[in-house]
Design a protein that fits this description.
This protein is mainly alpha-helical. The chain has helices at about 1-5, 10-25, 30-45, 50-65, 70-90, 90-110, 115-130, 135-145, 155-170, 175-195, 200-215, 215-235, 240-260. The relative contact order is 0.07.
Length: about 260
């Protein structure tokens, strides 16, 4: 709940406590401990503590792979998240096989189309970062079709996918399409997470880039500034996402001053 609200320090504290409690409760309950470690990994990623997140995920994966019984659903989730932490760290080539492994396991399980779609969108982000745009676009489009079957229930996943697809279209120069997708993503994220959530700011940053490339400097600077303010409040001034967004804002202001009236 705290992580969803964007209260990452409180979420981290509670999840560290959950890991300790899971360790103390039953050393043989690998799944319970792995779930706690996965949650800790997620919030550590949010806070840009990538090494700690990676360690938590890998410990969870080792527990599940060694535990008796079938835990393939959670193993797929851990591989998904391991791919995500490499993506966040800029290690795209290392993240791709992890994301593909998670997707393959999930597909083999069958049944949960939304979970498969989420894995597809995560892989698409990694492929997009490696300039594999055609496969990434197809994965995003296919995932979006699944989520759109139940738009209210899947609003959060739709927003994630729209954000990724919009960013991809922006790279390809399809700026009008990118703006429409990102605008919708902002609206959905504000509705599901609240207007001051860090994920809203991430999409605002992407939308600011599109406005700037379309020559709409006033809208771009306003959008960037809104994103910076949210990120400073939620993630802190020194978080990598905050620093990157602040640099985008500063460049936009400078370019706006140099642009012909």
């Amino acid at each position: 709940m705290h992580r969803r609200r964007g209260d990452y320090p409180q979420a981290e504290q509670l999840l560290r406590q959950a890991v300790v409690l899971a360790e103390q409760a039953d050393p043989l309950d690998a799944r319970r401990l792995a779930v706690a470690l996965n949650g800790l990994g997620l919030v550590c990623k949010d806070l840009a503590k990538h090494n700690e997140a990676r360690a938590a995920y890998r410990r969870a994966l080792a527990l599940l792979e060694q535990a008796p019984g079938s835990h393939d659903d959670w193993i797929a989730t851990i591989y998904h998240n391991l791919g995500g932490i490499e993506h966040a760290s800029g290690n795209y080539a290392q993240g791709e096989p992890l994301a593909r492994r998670g997707l393959a396991i999930r597909r083999a399980l069958g049944g949960d189309a939304e979970a498969v779609a989420a894995d597809m969108a995560a892989l698409a982000a990694i492929l997009d970062a490696q300039q594999q745009h055609d496969e990434a676009e197809q994965l995003y489009v296919d995932a979006l079709q699944v989520f759109e079957r139940e738009p209210q229930a899947n609003a959060g996943d739709i927003a994630v996918t729209l954000n990724g697809l919009g960013a991809l279209y922006a790279k390809r120069g399809a700026l009008e399409e990118a703006e429409a997708l990102l605008t919708r993503a902002v609206s959905l994220r504000e509705e599901t997470l609240g207007p001051r959530h860090a994920d809203v700011a991430v999409t605002l940053n992407n939308l600011g880039m599109v406005y700037k490339r379309r020559g709409h400097y006033e809208r771009a600077t306003t959008t960037y500034l809104a994103a910076v303010e949210i990120l400073e409040q939620t993630l802190g001034a020194q978080h990598p996402k905050t620093i990157a967004c602040r640099m985008n804002y500063a460049r936009c202001v400078a370019d706006a001053g140099a642009a012909p009236a």
